[in-house]
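>> received
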Amino acid sequence: MLILQRDYSKLVELMKKFKEELAKPFIGREEEALVLTLAIMTAEHAILVGEPGTAKSAMARRAADLVKARFFKYLLTRYTDPDELFGPLDIAALREGKYVRISVNRLPEAEIVFLDEIFNASSAILNTLLTLMNERVIYDGYREVQVPLWTLISASNTVPEEPEYRALYDRFLLRHFVKPVSEDKWGELLDAAWRIEKEGYRAVEPLLSMRELREIYDVIFNVDLSSIKDKLVKLYAAIEDQGVHISDRRKGKALKVIAAHSLLHGRSKAVEEDLVVLKYVAPQTAEEAEKTYIVLLEEVSLKERVLEEIREVETNIREVKALLVRRQDIDPRLIEYLRGLERAREKLKKILNTSVEDSVKRRALEVLVELEETIESVKRRLVL
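>> returned
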């Protein structure tokens, strides 16, 4: 329940609906939806990195479609000319000695921008994007032009290693490394893919206006961060100890993301659970993302940590069930699987006895019931 000076519950519900609607057509992409929602809320930039075919571009486009704003999107290649993004030169003005671009319906007029494969851009485009993303200005000849850019979203297959791209990559406060859908969700994935092939992506109505986004942005600064700052400093040190360097700028900007996460969960005061967003702010590579998350699991009291453990148990159950279907004889692996399932049973019972979150207890109980049934199925197979 929010306890701010005004009732902001409607704005919060709007952002929750935005996140849910963003993830709706996709399978297993709730975390990606969270990252893009946090970017939209904080007026920061976000990038999704991962192999082709993992819905990165589709999610970025859907996020833009859900905001009623001036929108610009473009797929960058090494041959993309600056005029394609920023507009061609005004020849008439040039004859008068003025350097002016015609930027109608181009990037300089957009509030939400999606640039696919941004690291394919030429050095001329990269240099302009640096100031545009950081300072919200571009240089048109000798003029400094303010642009209305709110959030720039990008998708890329890889993280560039070349030094010239580091500054641009650092402009993305939120960075998420997208993985393929896990095996236990392949059935749902096929259903969703077939539906999309048949019907296409259904057009979505915008949920948010720019006015509402600005209101949400202002509310973020009303979130009380006092109780997590000491813990945050300790986390920065622990993450750096793992070889993950966080720049001073990112350390400060992370506060906005923490506050947005708290607000998205209906809290006006941040709690330790909100520090989970560091997994999107601190790392530069997928390897660093794993290191950062391990630190968070060890150092922070996360409901997400417990839920992740429950999900791991559920994944193991799916694997055993799949084996039972594929093999009708006695597979030697079943003995080891049985031991693992029995260990998982003790883990779930511990969660039920120690967790204070009703939602976590309900989830643990649901999985425990399925686990008991699976254990019995394995035992019956082993005595055949």
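>> Strands lie at 46-49, 67-68, 71-75, 112-116, 137-140, 143-146, 151-156, 174-177, 208-209.
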